[in-house]
């Protein structure tokens, strides 16, 4: 069935009753409606361990690790089964995440039951994504649900638990109970703007900026979202980003002290011609050439790069909350996006401005009460560096 213009995503059940707390229409739930969902048990947690208020972001909820992790021999999807029933076939051993937590080894999948559970009405579906800070340390996460056939997608009306697969890819990490590595977004119906709507909005309210000015509409690359290119001009010394070091030490994600980045990353500098050659299967942190602006009333999501466009993958998806790159007093100012990039199989050259990922934009179901920024503990507004919060000190213990 074709989707209506200006939207995308699962359709709401037209026969389903609308909960009295949920406004009519289609869109992503902002913070005040997420708080309602928490209060009504739609997003539930143990009575003696409720979701902290700080975990409610402008258009998402930070989810928390439970008290144990299971080391897996392989990743899996449950299909028609419950997760715990399938887990019996793939579990190797169990780790205690209480207290100091446990070390997760590189390249090994682990599964953790999250503290939050869902009791979604039929109008709502969910999507999960790693938090930006999680992607920047090359930790791969994705949510699975009972009866789920796709990662990170939660069916309309789902009632049940949430389980997080965690795979550290570059560094061994220490995690513990209550740490937030991923986020949940709840959506009513089809919320995504189509390309025609995106272009029309950009002409009146810029979504991408370059050197402080709106990118001309005719220069935008649009295909079910807006493409972002790489900045490979870098700083005056030619530094364009970072590459993960081999054989790095343990990274404790529960620390409240800034970590020395030189132990984990080495700088990457451009070649003549504003290009770099990506070594196979190494993890790179780079910046977008364009600055992103997510105005109030919208949310955005970074989607993975199309692998048919080359031997390269922008590895992680991620949520952009309303207000990212937006100043309440001045309007659209833009903030560049951190890009996590990996080449596969062979060395691959990338050049300044080359598209590597795209952003999709969605309407909010209601005007947001809060916007992305320092007032809600955001770490990356106006960023000029790609390193995550553990290496800058811009974080709180166990926070997101």
Automatic annotation (TrEMBL):
Give any Pfam family that matches: DCD_C
Gene3D superfamilies (alphabetical): 2.70.40.10
Signal sequence range: none
Q: Which domain of life is it from?
A: Bacteria
InterPro entries given for it? Answer: DCD_C, DCD_N, dUTPase-like_sf
UniProt keyword list: Hydrolase
| Segments forming domain 2'-deoxycytidine 5'-triphosphate deaminase N-terminal | 26-189
Which residues belong to any copy of the 2'-deoxycytidine 5'-triphosphate deaminase C-terminal domain?
195-391
**Mind listing the GO molecular function terms for this protein?**
dCTP deaminase activity
Entry's EC annotation? 3.5.4.13
In this chain, the stretch annotated as Disordered covers 1-27
**PANTHER family, alphabetized:** DCTP DEAMINASE
Protein name, UniProt field: 2'-deoxycytidine 5'-triphosphate deaminase
UniProt source species: Aciditerrimonas ferrireducens
